[in-house]
From TrEMBL:
Acetylates the N-terminal alanine of ribosomal protein bS18. Its EC number is 2.3.1.266. It is found in: Cytoplasm. The active site is at E114, Y126. Keywords: Acyltransferase, Cytoplasm, Transferase. GO terms for cellular component: cytoplasm. This is [Ribosomal protein bS18]-alanine N-acetyltransferase. The keyword Transferase applies. The lineage of its organism: Bacteria, Pseudomonadati, Pseudomonadota, Betaproteobacteria, Rhodocyclales. One of its GO terms (molecular function) is protein-N-terminal-alanine acetyltransferase activity. The gene is rimI. Belongs to the acetyltransferase family. RimI subfamily.
Amino acid sequence: MPPVKSFNAMLLTIHAMIDADIVQVAAIEAQQHSVPWSATSFADALNQGWHCRVLKDTCDQVLGYCISMTAGDDEELLTLTVRPDSTGQGLGKQLMQELLHQARQRGASNLFLEVRESNQIAIHLYEQMGFKMTGMRKNYYPVPANPVLKSLAGRENALVMCRALAEHL
C-alpha cells in the first residue's frame, strides 16, 4: 500500500470547477465509481449551472470535487468524491463544509443526498455532519457483478439523507 499523504489545509483551495478541471475530475470519477459519470456529464453539469466545486493542491491537482443543484428551497448533493490516494485526510469533510456554506448562502433550507447502502465511510461522514436518514430507494444504483454485495438483480439500495441547513456543527 502506498504511503498516506498528509495535507496542510492552508495549502488547499476549493473553488468553482472550470472546463480545464474536467479531465482530472473524470479520471478520479473513473477510479472511484463502478458506474462513473463521463467527462461529457461533468461538462453538462457546468453548462446547466449546477454548483460544481473542486478541491486542489498548490500544484493545481484536483484532489476532490462535489456537485450539487438547487431544487426549490432545497439543495441536492449529486456527487462528492476524493481521489483514491487522498482519502482518509478529511478532504471529503472539507468539501462538504464548503457545500453546506454555499447552500446556506443560496438560501437553501435543507441539503439532501443519496448514498449507496454499502458506502459506510460516506454514511459515517454524513452522520458526523448532522445528516439523518429520511428514506431508502430500493435497487436504485446499478452494481457490477459482485458476490459481496447482497443486492437484488445487480442493483443496490440508496439511503436518502437530509440535513437542515439552519443547523451549524
